[in-house]
Design goal:
The protein is α+β, with helices and mostly antiparallel strands. The chain has a single domain, classed as Glycoprotein, Type 4 Pilin. It contains two helices and four strands.
């Protein structure tokens, strides 16, 4: 008879992650977080300018009503239009319309409380035919402007 010896081969299995795998995972998560932060910041800036544009649009109807009623010079102010003179993001000024010509800066918002837009403004110009056009100062990035101002 043949004798065979049985040897026990011990194999140890290790479970878990290597240091390189962990470092790669953390790097990918960091890159994704950086992209998300930039996108979030861009959305916040677009939202702020959209809010300003909407606040400016609140002036259109009262402005037109005062024109139709033949209001005097004193009627063309935020108070005369029955809208606030100041909001969180704006300090408003109103220009008396020209009788037969366009009125640039008919309603103007000097932007406040937004650090990256220091000394900038957004305004609505009124054409002689009664249409409105939004204008932004040169320091406001085009990508942040609402569609009505582009």
């Amino acid at each position: 008879m043949l004798k065979t010896s049985k040897r026990h081969v011990s194999v140890t299995l290790q479970s878990g992650f290597t240091l390189i795998e962990l470092m790669l995972t953390i790097a990918v998560i960091g890159i994704l977080a950086a992209i998300a932060a930039v996108s979030y910041q861009s959305q916040i800036r677009q939202s702020q300018l959209t809010t300003i544009y909407q606040e400016l649009n609140h002036f259109r109807l009262p402005y037109q009503i005062l024109i139709n009623e033949g209001a005097g010079v004193t009627g063309f102010s935020p108070e005369g239009l029955n809208v606030p003179e100041q909001t969180k993001y704006c300090q408003f000024t109103v220009t008396t319309p020209h009788a037969t010509a366009a009125t640039p800066n008919a309603v103007r918002c000097k932007i406040q409380n937004i650090g990256y837009l220091q000394n900038q403004h957004l305004s609505l110009d009124r054409a002689a035919n009664g249409t409105w056009q939004c204008q932004a100062s040169a320091g406001i990035p085009h990508s942040y402007l609402p569609k009505g101002c582009q």
